[in-house]
Structure formats: C-alpha cells, structure tokens
Amino acid sequence: MEIRIRNRVIIIAVVLVLCILGIICYPANEQEIIGFPRTFQRLKENVRNRIRLGLDLSGGTHLVLQVQVEDAINVTVDLAQERLRDELHAKGIPASVEKKKENGRIFLLITGVPQDKTNDLQTLAAEQFPDWDLTRRAGDPLARELSLKASAAAAIRTQALEQSRNTIRNRIDQLGVTEPTIADYGGQTDYELVVQLPGVDDPSRVKDIIQSTAMLTLKIVQDGPYSSREAALAAHGGILPPDSELLPGRRETSGEGQGVEAWYLVSRIAAVTGRDLRDARPGPDENGRPSVNFNLTRDGAVRFGRVTGQNVGKQLAIILDNRVVSAPVIQSQITDSGRITGSFTPQQAADLALVLRSGALPASIKYLEERTVGPSLGADSIRHGVVASIVGLLAVMGFMFAYYRGAGINANLALILNMIMLVAVLGYFGAVLTLPGIAGVILTVGMGVDTNVLIFERIREELRLGKTVGAAVAGGFEHAFVTVIDTHVTTIVSALILFTFGTGPIRGFAVTLTIGLLANLFASVFVSRVLFDYVLAKRGKGEAISI
Amino acid sequence: MEFFHEPKIDWMGKKWYFIGLSLVLLVAGLVSIGLRRGLVYGIDFRGGTLVYVKFSRAPDLDAIRSELKRVNLGGATIQRYGPATDNEVIIGLDVGTTASTDALDAGKRAIVGALAGLYGAGPSGKVDFNNASSQTVAEHLVAADPLRLASKGSEEALRAYRELAATLVEFRNTPPHSGLLADFQELRSVPGVTSAVLEALQKDFYLSQYAVRNTEVVGPKVGGDLRRQALYVTLAGLAAMLVYIWFRFELIYGVAAVIAIFHDVLITLGIFTLLNKEISLTVIAALLTLVGYSMNDTIVVFDRVRENLRLGKRDNFVDLVNRSINQTLSRTILTSGLTFLAVLSLYLFGGEVIHGFALALVIGVIIGTYSSIAIASPILVFLYQRVGQNRIGVKPRVVERGAAGARG
To answer: pTM for this one?
Structure first.
C-alpha cells in the first residue's frame, strides 16, 4: 500500500515538474536547451513566448479571401483558342473558333468545318488536346464544342489556388509580418484562403499588396498613343491590325502632372513577362524619382535583347495588369535589366518591386471577410479574461472548501493542478490562446469540479450506507468512474465538432476545453484518489475523514 | 455542509407542470422568432460592417449621425456599448447598404473617413499616437534619438527604444486609458520617459480624440455559408450524442436525451430573440457547449437509472427514476451551481466582446440542468413504458468496469 502510494506520488511530482518547466522555460536561442529563467524579466519573456495569443488578444488582422479560379480557366481557354487556330491552319482545316460561355460553361465553338474534314478535326483534338472533350453541338450537325475535361479543369483550379497561396505567402513574408497564418478555408470547392496577420492593425496596404495581380508584360508599341479608344480605332479604319491590341494607360504631359488618358496599340505577343524576372528592386531613376529596377533571367535577356535590338527607336510599353504604366523609347539594345518608371510614390515603388519579386497571381482575388482587432482592445480583453478567470476560480474553490472541508482542499489541489496542466499543454503544443479560449478555461473550472462532486457525493452515500472509510472512498471512486467517463466523452465530442467547424477564436475555445477536460481526468480521478489514500494511510483505519 | 439529506421528491408526479412551463417558454420563444421573421443574426451571419470606436470624451451621436448621412451612409446604426464612462460606440452598416460592386471595405473606409472629417485628421505629417503600433513609435524614437543612445551603437539604441515604445504603448492600452490618451503629459508617469522623449513624441505624433478599436467586415457569401454551417454543426453535435448514448445505453435513452437538448437549444434561441440579443458565431459555440453540458447532466441521471435497474429491485420504473433523480440531486445542484458561478463570473467580468457568449452559457447552464430532470426523465419514462420494459432498459450481459467488485 505504502509503496503503491509512493510510486503514484512520484508520477504526480514528475508530471507537475514537467508542466511547470513547460510553462516557465523557453529556449531563446539554439545553444539553450531548456532556457530556465534566472531573472524575473526572463520569466515574463518565457511565459509570453510559451503562451501564444490569438489575434483577438494580440491585435491584428484576419482576412478571408476567395481565389477567382475561373480566371485561370479563362486564361487556359484563351491559350487553347490561339493554339487551336494555329493547328487548324497548319492542318488545312478551314474553321472558325469562337470562345463561348453558356450556363456558366465555358468552351470553344468550332464552326464552318466541311463534312469531309470532321474526322481530321476529331484526330487533331484527340492528339493535340488530350485534356479536352470534343462533342457535337446540339441543333447543329457540323458545329463542334471543345471543352475542358472536368478532371483537367479541377486540376487547373487547384493549381491556381496553390500558386496563389504560395505567392501570397511570399508577399507577406517579404513585408516582415511576424508569424502570419495563410491556410485553406471553407469547403474544397470554395477556393478560399484565410490570412491572419498578428500586429497588423491597418490592413489596407497589406490587402492591396496581396490583391495586386502583378501581371507584368513588356510589349512593343506599334502605334499611338491616342487620346481615346475611338480615336485609335478610327486611325485604323475601325479594324485593328492583326496580332495587336489596344491598351489604356497614361501619357505624361510636361511637368509633374498626373498625365492624360492615352491608348496604345501594342503587339499581342509580349517580349518578356513577369516570369522572366530574376529580381526587382526599388530605386531612383536618373531624375531621382522613385522607380523599380529589374533584372531578367538568362532566357528572358536573350529574348529581350533580340526584340529591343530589332525595334530601336520605337516605344516599349511596360504593362502592369493590362494597363500601360509607361512607354519609354528604346534608345539602344537592352539585354538583362531595365527600369519601370511612372508617377510612383516611394512606397508604391517599393510595393511594386515586392509584388514583382514574389511572382504574379494566376487569378484575381476577392475579399470576403475582414476583421481587425486594435491592440488596446486585445489588452482589454486579456484583462477581462484574467479577472473573470480568477473570480470564477476563487468562487468555485471557496465554495468547494465550505461544502466539503477537508475533501474540498483535495478537490481544490486537483483543480489547481488541472489549470497548471492546461496551460502547460497549451504551451507545449503551441496552441493559441483566444478570448473564447479563456472562456474555455473558466468553463473547465466549473465542469472540472463536477468530477470531484460526483465522486464526493458518492463517497458520502457509501458512508451513509455504513461502510468503512476506506471502502467508502474506494466505492465512491469506482462507482463514479463510469459516469465520469460518459460525461467527459460527450463534452469532448461536442468540443471536437466545434474544432472542425470553427476557425480562430472558436477553435481556441474547443482546444482549451478539450485539454482542460483531459487534464481533469488525471487530476480529479488519479491525483485526488492518491491524496485520499495518502490521508487515509497516515491516519489509521478507523478515523473519519472530512468530507 | 449538505443541502439535501436523502430527498424524496416525486419528480415524475409533477411532470405536467414542467412540461407546461417548457411549452410556455418554447411557444414564447417561437412566437417571438416568428414575429421577427427569424433570429436576430449578428454580423457573422448577416454580413455587413461594424466599426468599434472609443472617444476621449462623450461623443455627440447626433453630429456623427448627420456626418454619416452627409457621406451617404444614412442607413448606418449608431449604438453605445459598455459602461457610459467608456465612451464607446459601435457604428454598423448592413451588407445591402454598400453596393455589391464596391470593395468589401468600402463601408468601413467611409465610416473612418467621416470620423476623420468630423474630428479633424490631425496636423499633416504627424502620426496619430492613439492609433500607432509599438513598431511605429519605436521607428520614430530611433530616428529622433531623444536619449542620445546612438553613441552606444545602433543595435543597443534600437533595443532600448523598442522597449520604451512597448512600455509607452502598453501604458496607452491598459486601463484607465484603454487605447486613448488625451494629453502627452500623461506619459510622464511612464518609467524612462524624460522631457526630451516627450518633446520628440510631440514633434512626430498628435493625439486624436477617438480610436478605432476594432473593425469587422463580413461579405454576404460568408454570412450565408456560416449560417448553413452553424445549423449543420449543431445537428451533427446532436447526432454524435445520440449515437454515443445509443452505444453506451440504449436507443430510448439517447432519444430522450436528444429531445431534451433540442428543447434546451430552442428555448435558449427563443430567449435570445426575446431579449433582442444577436446570434453570433461565438453564441453558436456556446450553444454547442450547452449541448455537451446538458448531455453531461442528463447522463449522470441516466447512469443512475441504469445502475438501479441493474441492482434488480423490482419496483416500478417511475419510482426508480424518481429515486435516481433524488440520489443525484445533490450533485446536480452542486455542479450546476458551481458551473453557474464560473460562467456568471465570465458574464460579469469577461468584457463586451464575449457578452453574448457568456449569456448563452448562463442561460444554457440553467436550462440544461432543468431539462435533464424535468424533460429528459419524463420522456425516458414515457418511452420505456411505450416501447416495452421487458426488452429494453438494461443489458445484463455487460459488466461495467470497476462496478463488479464494489457491489459485492
């Protein structure tokens, strides 16, 4: 008996020490293994490092955004249209290809194929467009529809989501936000991301940076600028020359003005795109105005050199997200580097360099939700939570002592141990403490003592039946155990459902409640029993216990 | 101390009073929900914009209202919250107020812009200290170097100013200031602040009369998604409970418990509507906790019923349920009382952000305890008598862990 109690006391002591070390120790650097605090200042720092605070307590920004994956599908269909036209031309199949959108379905409509060439079209589609389905169009025996296979479309969407996630992570990392969270959100087909930025309490700049598609292309200007779209069209008799397109932009007038609206006729084919960039950095131009300097990859430089060499004296349009930001004249052949000027502020130039460095987004982004918690509100919430916890804990402990006397002390020790274990486990697993999480702690206090109450009431009953103290304690614990397991399982099940459903703050609640209840099983069943046994062993068999 | 000494209350004999009371509460709640054509949804479920603003002195709500009207935000709601001395206001916009083609945060920008227009945006080039982060404050201090630390090396200076900035911001954020300073002189009491520091701060910063403490913008899609999700998750919770009890007890126990919990959730929602309190995401979390808690309470009684059945005394089932409730009554009252104390402290001291959550728990603890005695037990008796006591009620084969030895 004595040895059994001693062994159990050792187990409890080990758990307690591990938990306390888990709370107060934090290795500050690689050399330190334990990071034991030697000063009070260090103790505070360690605890602060151990207990990670959620956005609602630390202050910060929470964004939910949706990647418009259909953009990526659109681009794929556009490219396929070009390729199909070329292939048809090469194979000598006369046909016209048109992009169509019907009932949310996007496809290429192929018309004008002569009867005897339909088999050729079939072969071409099977060979060159393995990810596509060629079907007859209802109501027109000669027209065909070429549409992306469902599996291929799904792969494109998933890839767009992944690429967006990586690009956004790149951009946020470069902004120097500490410990951001970027994760998938919502259902599989929602293509939503949640972005959490601790310490960022003005999200507008970050949002703009995340959102900018940053599609950079450099194209040769064929004609222009014109003052309006109509003027440009009129200059070419209403029809644009082949392989060219009209893009809006601004033309700088003399002086510092904002410039006037201008339309440029540029080549359809880009000399280089954002993918050819090796690096982009903000820096002043020759006039000392903010601009972005970029370097090209080896491949990009070769192409850029060829194109600029052939077009000396012409304008080069620098196009960002389908707008011409500037159109300098090519003075001589340029190979591996260049500069983007425009009327930027230093901040805009720095942000543009950042988004260019981090790569383009494959699809545009739509914000669905934005929450910002100011740091002072977080501090208020911490204070409220701590006060509520302490008041709740003291009220419960005072009551347990008044009602159960000696056994109440036992229950209160178990409760304190429960709290220590709860905080330690939070720290060890790097779980995040949120305001509802603090509520979970308080609820654990209330529900935790339930176990003790169940057991103590049972012991009282057994005593009333006239059992000896030892038998009553044993009977009380054993009888109550089944009930305790049932009550814990049901609550933990609901907490787990909350965890899978909820985000951020609510997850914090589910986590603390679950950990608290598990810790409670150890504290109120195991530890409490050992305390009883210890007291009983000290006192001798016949004496009554205080309960 | 002991509250109940072997009580012998005939609970089942009073079941019609309980059922009557529950029906009154249910009908009142449902009528109120019906009259409002639905629950009072918070911004999480409704979509829209909320801006929490704290003012350094009592704000003129009419002036704010007319300024908002001037910038075409006439539909905005302005509402004070928290203690009157805190001067805190929530400005809200419904999701329909801003056109769907606008950026998500158009409403928020407009509100913040209107406040700046009303209270002045501050001298140009200066930063608002009341809305500045510790990082910003540190940057300005390093640049101004009022403590002449640059001579000690830039690393050392950076560290020192970061610490000072953190202390300053913490001072600003902790009560009684809660994010708003009215005068730079207040900072004098902060350790490490000298006249030079104050001077440097005053040169770069100004103090606005309000601070935007919190903003929430929820798009219409998110609101609808969450509403659906909240319903599914509550139903999933109930289903999981039903399966667990079915597995541990018998189906009729599960059915009785789940009906009781359904009753709890409906009454809590009804009371929320009657009190005109909004249903937010955290309230749903509280409801799910209530599901777990109420189940907890019901299981304690049912466990006792099962145990008494197994003891094999051939008394009638109604007496047996009465006895089981009475045997566990002391525990039920005590536990509920203690949990109630805990959540009451949360309600009273937990702050504005968590008020709805705490209220749902306070109501839930009371209703959950009541229903396990007054609703779950009568339903169990009813089902037991209907479905047949010969077949269902106890599994004699199952030997419970630990129970066998103690019973001998």
So the answer is: 0.76
